[in-house]
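Late entry, adenosine-5'-diphosphate complex.
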Amino acid sequence: MLHSGTKFPTRVAIKRIIPISSGKGGVGKTTFAINFSLALSRHGRTVLVDLDTGTSAIRNAIDVPIEKDLYHFFRKGEPINRCVSYLSKKLDPKGAFRDFGFVAGPLHLIDEITNFGAANKAKLIEAINGLDADYVILDMRAGLDSNVIDFLPFSNSGILIFTPHLPSATLAASDIVKAILFRKLRLIFSRESPFYATVSGQFDFWRLINELIDQVEDVYDSSVANLDAFADDLAGNLGDHPIARTVQQTLEEFRVHYVLNLFNGVDDSFQTAVKPFIENLTSNVSARCGVTNLGWIMRSDAIHRANCNKTPALLLPPEEKKISRNDRVAQELDELRSMAIGIDQPRRKNAKQTKAAATADPADHLANQLNVLRTMFEQKKDDDFHANFEYASQRALFTMKTRRTSEFGDVRIYRPDEMLATIFAKSNIPTTIDWGELEL
Ligand SMILES: Nc1ncnc2c1ncn2[C@@H]1O[C@H](COP(=O)(O)OP(=O)(O)O)[C@@H](O)[C@H]1O
Ligand SMILES: [Mg+2]
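Prediction complete; structure with ligand written out below:
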């Protein structure tokens, strides 16, 4: 007997969408996505969508009958809200997770669903935007092609998963940030951009900027180190100009959120995962964007066994605890509110501070992340994996509550034209501009 049938009330909530990505496979994205979604579902209707459509990973990790999946959505014209599967009584006897549902990838590898073209991608994006849920979690595939990037938000990273056990995945995670930021910059400086229309006749300027972006993106070209240098170049040439400000804002308002999986203690995780991530991010992408740790998941044989048994770990009975779960959650929420551990305060900068940020010291980022990890570890070293997932979900909920939607948990997946319109509207750019003499 499934829990479905009690779903889809008519109320329309503001939905929040959180992609889980890693750049590389095998770091625990799917494991995290499933258990994090289960934890979130205690706080609102949560639907997990399998976007790693070639691997059937989610349906292989949750032992319930699946009546409809993405095959039915793409091939049979089923609305996505009817392709949601729910836990059975066998897995969730008390109905504690009745607000958790998932959209499974197809049973077999179907090329047009695995490597969907532009039309199918647009159709799926629109459907996800229309999913009836409070929280939508996207289990992304590995890689950085447009079938991954186009589902990511444009002002934050979603949740990046990396692990001390796979250092190359750590670097791939910072490449995701880079890819998101470059997608946004390329949009701003595309010929279709409304920014371009405001500088008509400035073709050379536009071409030069695009060449500059190429140089920054090319890791083998060291002439322009990273996006901070690019933003400084632009500001140096344009002065306090709406386009220069838009680029600066793009970097300063970008938020990176990460979770460490297969956590093995603060120092090891810091040295082998966090440090290389921040170093790569600051030197190749930008030192200006904010980085927030949303917790860690310990390495646990029980988690792995649970995956193999097709029963998500969070559905297993919790181990004996010293303090009851409710007390602990209440205590953690208090801690979060009073200390805002690891959550940078919203940055409203005046001109002077913005200049200071231009020379942001990557070492600050590192010291901050180490302190955050140490503080959390002091408080949480005895936690089991249930508490780890609970904590990550509490952090995510807290972040969604206290920060702008653009910073975490976007309300929709934006199409490129919507993205541009949003950026342009925010830039307050006048329709005609006197560019004066430009030298780039
Ligand atoms: N915290 C963990 N403890 C133990 N094993 C884990 C943990 N997280 C993931 N695994 C195991 O690692 C493997 C890869 O996990 P998976 O979630 O499929 O990664 P991805 O989706 O990134 O490819 C699986 O065998 C899974 O059971
Ligand atoms: Mg996976």
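The pocket of magnesium ion (ligand 2) is lined by residues 29-30, 52, 57 (CB under 6 Å). Will revisit in the morning.
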